[in-house]
Predict the 3D structure of the following.
Amino acid sequence: MAAPSEPSDNELIKSCLSGSQAHARRLYDRYKNYVARVIRNMENDPEAVQDLLQQTFIKAFSGLKSFKGDSGFKTWITTIAVNTAKNYRNKKTRRGRHPKVSIDHTGEENGAALELKDESANPQKQLLTKEMGTVIGAALDMLSEEHREVISLWNEGFSYDEIGAMTKTLPQTVGSRLHYARAQLQKILTPYIKGNKE
Amino acid sequence: MTSICEDIAYKLSAYLDNELGEAEKNRVEAHLENCPSCRGSFRELKKSSDLVSARLSVQPSVDFDKAWQHIEPEIRRRPAIRRYLRAFIVKPGFWIPASAAATVGAAALFFALCLPVYKSQRPVSLSHVESVSSKSGSVMVLHTAKTSQPIIWIMEKSPKEKRP
């Protein structure tokens, strides 16, 4: 017997709009991991990630009526998640609570958030030791908000055009920001990559 | 590093992301084939980029059920209010009394707002005096807007004035 096909995002959204809590939960389950990753890549504090995830979904479900479906639910919720994380970071910076992360610090605080599950499934992850993960996390924290944003969105598979639409910039600007973000990360990481080789 | 190498170095990131047009892509590939220095730069860029990707792809540990416990009451509350309003508004007996109440309300509001304006624009009634004279004297009556009672003066003529 054929398994019942999964409802599309648009079907779930329609159902959510007529008050289905079960379908709201289904939509949440479909995107929770993805949204958590996008937020974590913008904001490293694990406690803040949970709070920002809640805020993102509450905003998304409350504003579901305004979703036109032109760009897809994934793009729409990504924009909400990124803006929510950006607002949080701006508030934190204004209050002077933004922690200065040292690249030399490779303690467990940042490393604890790094769970390398099912390493065999992803060859990329085999490259990443826990210590290297901490170093990269600290290097990402040193990037400007704009650079962090583009590198995070690019990593989720969005094209330059899509990132440009989400961040209200030109695709060329996205390319340029990615170039400088990578150059900065490479500058920080090269000694560690070479150190690992030796 | 030549100026061509500098130009290519700027394009390596977009080349890595497969975001270059066909002509640019061919140009970069042709240069990489002939330039060991740029080839090395590209290898390093790819390696660090792969590491960053691996770090960005790691799933953060979030208590999703706990998060949902905060999300659900929020989204349940808002549609519930909307549903209640919708159900109330579409009742058949709603519109006639609602329209009547709205009309009465609008009329009351109209009078409340317009009456003071009307009063202030009414013409001011001026005081006026009427008088009657006779051989023995005269009577003056003053009517004012403020008082409903007229004021009456009775003035007798002096004996000198009474003389013909």
Remarks:
- Chain B has three domains: 3-57, 64-120, 128-162.
- Chain B has a mean pLDDT of 82.
